Amino acid sequence: MAKYLGPACKLCRREGEKLFLKGERCFSPKCAIEKRESVPGQHGRSGQNRSSDRESDFARQLRAKQKARRIYGMMERQFRRYYSVALKRRGLTGLNLLQTLELRLDNVIFRMGYAVNRETARVLVTHGHFMVNGRRTDVPSVILKAGDVVSVREGSRPKTYFKELPELAEPRIVPVWLERTVKDLSGRVIRLPERAEIDGNLNEQLIVEYYSRR
């Protein structure tokens, strides 16, 4: 499956805000946003100085879609597929889309504090370090549901990363729709996340408008 291989900090600069794609580095002075706030590219600085009210509706919709796609770390084709699934479900399409993205296995592992970012969570899953309901899985895009239990595979626990993980994960705040047991390196999905419990910087309505006009 295709994936973005360029610098993560460039994506944050393009969106003009921290997307927290590199874990602890994003909270340090080494963060690229702290050093250069301009948009990447030859005309980045002049483009950034343009008034936001001069942006077209399409530009705002595109930026909202790109930001969500980059936060969750997926390419356009995969993101569009999630939108198509959300469109067919009952309820608000935008909320359906965000809930689906939040319930991806790699995102749940990140939210539980078992990975510093979603990219690391994807690598850990791909290498077979996690189980869902007692079964080993290496597919980061698995969509979990209420009651599903995620845990570190027994054979992976002696590895240095997982030995140090409880100390690293403990300070991380876990969303209320998840339950975590750091001692056992496990967790459970209690229910679907509500809109107020998902990133408030995402504008799902603009994403729906973007795909609706195509």
Characterization of the model:
This protein has 214 residues and is of the alpha+beta class. The chain has a domain of 86 residues: RNA-binding S4 domain (Structural Genomics Hypothetical 15.5 Kd Protein In mrcA-pckA Intergenic Region, Chain A). It is built from 10 helices and 5 strands. It has a 5-stranded antiparallel sheet, covered by helices on one side. Helix 4 crosses helix 10. The longest helix has 16 residues. It is globular and about 55 Å long. It starts with 7 loop residues before the first helix and ends with a helix.
Helix content: 40-55%
What is the radius of gyration computed over CA atoms, rounded to a whole number of angstroms?
18 Å
CATH architecture of the domain at 104-189: Roll
User: Which runs of at least 5 residues are low in confidence (pLDDT < 50)?
Assistant: none
Residue fraction in strands = 5-15%
CATH class of the domain at 104-189: Alpha Beta
* Strand/helix succession: HHHHHHHHEEEHEEH
Q: Under CATH, the topology of the domain at 104-189 is which? A: Structural Genomics Hypothetical 15.5 Kd Protein In mrcA-pckA Intergenic Region, Chain A
- Shape by Cα distribution: globular
Instruction: Please state the structural category.
Output: alpha+beta
Distance between the termini: 24 Å
Number of strands: 5
> Can you tell me the CATH superfamily of the domain at 104-189?
RNA-binding S4 domain
Strand order in the largest sheet: 2-1-3-5-4
Total DSSP helices: 10
Q: Summarize model confidence as the mean pLDDT.
A: 86
